[in-house]
Write a structure and sequence with these properties.
Blueprint lengths: L7 E6 L2 E6 H5 L4 H4 L7 H5 L4 E3 L4 E4 L3 H13 L10 H11 L8 H14 L22 H15 L5 H23 L3 H4 L6 H11 L3 H23 L3 H6 L1 H23 L5 H13 L13 H12 L1 H28 L12 H12 L12 H19 L2 H31 L1
Parallel strand pairs: 1-4
Antiparallel strand pairs: 1-2, 3-4
Length: 429
């Protein structure tokens, strides 16, 4: 810790004091408390807590002391439950203040929180730096430039933050729709006729396709997406974090194939390898389907799906492990019963275990295409067990994933409503 003196620090939460060493604060599980370790001045400290006593090295937080006591039980023992006789939403507000999420609650308390939030339509989100009149007196140098960058960031990242952001989001959606229409139309037989030409004609067609209407539309869409991605990268706070975000990676995957295809067309020319390069170009062009995922920036439903998958990746991995184990067992048994035993009837569809894996997958997911089916009595009995096991295994993690989905939707809905309120204030001003 770079501020204060003494080997230990004291946290005063609503009148209850807790003493910690400086090294403990560095990796403290509560995000707000761990931020004290990096404070360099008293002004930085006051941005984290409500008051500070330099003589006793004591940090005061005007929060619910009993709720913080239960949160400290989670820090020590790893179990977080609601305070008896305390509103679930109030306790959830305390959790968010200290840097916890609903997923840290025990399962029974998560259900209570989801039900309460659904009933009252009250949503909470992490605190953000205040930009009201009370924060004007402590604005650091260069704050005007930072404020302009923050407005630019919100314009490109939050479609409901301002009128300009809504216009920009609408234009981006239109470009995505147009690019998808052109991509779908390019697979029609009338559009694919030039692919059957000779190598020389194909090279001339590839070079001239950029000048056709579809090529012009594609170039305009790519230009818009490229400019949008560059501007968002310039105004981002953390460039490394910007590159690591999944949606930004998808943007790069959707944009780069176009430039690769153009470079391949320029460098191959009428080379004999153009025919093989043409297959690569078609694969690269088909990667434009990733543009559909760009709509996740503008629709809460797709954002909720992505956030749920991010938070429930352990449950998803567990589900895949269940399926893989069951697939290995049932595919080996089905191959043995249908083809491995010399019972006079051999089912050629089950000639190997990898071939039987396909039947296991469509049976466990209750799809049942009918292209493969057991013909022996033991094989049919095994098929029934496989179907029932698939239903049970797929249903086990669904409840937790559903509650996580509800919580993610509440959080994103609240954030959207908060930016909508700022948009209304902009209209009033």
């Amino acid at each position: 810790m770079n501020f204060g003196r003494g080997p230990s620090v004291v946290l005063n939460v609503g009148g209850t004091r807790y003493s910690f060493s400086r090294e403990v604060l560095k990796d403290f599980p509560l995000r707000r408390v761990s931020r004290l370790h990096g404070c360099l001045s008293e002004q930085d400290v006051l941005e984290v807590c409500d008051d500070y006593d330099r003589e006793r090295n004591e940090y005061f937080f005007d929060r619910h002391s009993e709720a913080f006591g239960f949160i400290m039980l989670y820090v020590r023992h790893g179990h977080l439950r609601f305070v008896p006789h305390m509103c679930e939403l109030s306790f959830y507000n305390e959790m968010i203040y200290w840097g916890l999420e609903g997923s840290h609650l025990d399962y029974c308390c998560q259900r209570r929180l989801d039900d309460r939030m659904s009933e009252t339509c009250t949503y909470y989100a992490a605190e953000e730096p205040k930009s009201g009149p009370e924060g004007k007196g402590r604005r650091p140098p260069g704050a005007e430039g930072g404020k302009w960058l923050e407005r630019m960031r919100r314009t490109f990242e939050e479609p409901t933050s301002s009128v300009a952001a809504q216009v920009l989001a609408t234009v981006s959606i239109l470009f995505v729709i147009v690019s998808m229409v052109v991509l779908c139309a390019s697979t029609l037989p009338e559009w694919r006729a030039p692919e059957n030409r000779s190598v020389e004609e194909q090279s001339r067609y590839t070079a001239e396709s950029v000048r056709e209407p579809s090529g012009i539309i594609e170039a305009i869409c790519i230009g818009w997406f490229t400019a949008e991605c560059i501007v968002r990268f310039i105004v981002s706070k953390n460039k490394c974090e910007f590159v690591r975000r999944p949606l930004n990676i998808i943007d790069l995957l959707a944009i780069t194939p176009y430039y690769i295809s153009v470079l391949m067309t320029v460098f191959t020319g009428e080379n004999s390898q153009l025919q093989r390069a043409g297959v690569t170009l078609r694969v690269l062009r088909m990667m434009r389907i990733f543009w559909v995922i760009k709509l996740a920036r503008h629709f809460i439903g797709l954002q909720t799906l992505g956030l749920t998958l991010k938070r429930c990746y352990r449950e998803m991995v567990m589900l895949l492990v269940f399926i893989c184990v069951a697939m290995a067992i049932f595919s080996a048994l089905s191959q043995l019963l249908e083809n491995g035993l010399d019972l006079g009837t051999k089912n050629k569809d089950y000639a190997s275990i990898p071939a039987a894996c396909w039947w296991v997958i469509i049976s466990m997911t209750t799809v049942g295409y009918g292209d493969m089916c057991p013909i022996t009595v033991p094989g049919r009995i095994l098929g029934g067990i496989c179907v029932v096991s698939g239903i049970v295994l797929l249903a086990l993690p669904i409840t937790f994933i559903y509650h996580s989905f509800v919580q993610c939707y509440h959080e994103l809905k609240f954030r959207s409503a908060r930016y909508s309120r700022s948009l209304s204030a902009e209209f009033l001003n």
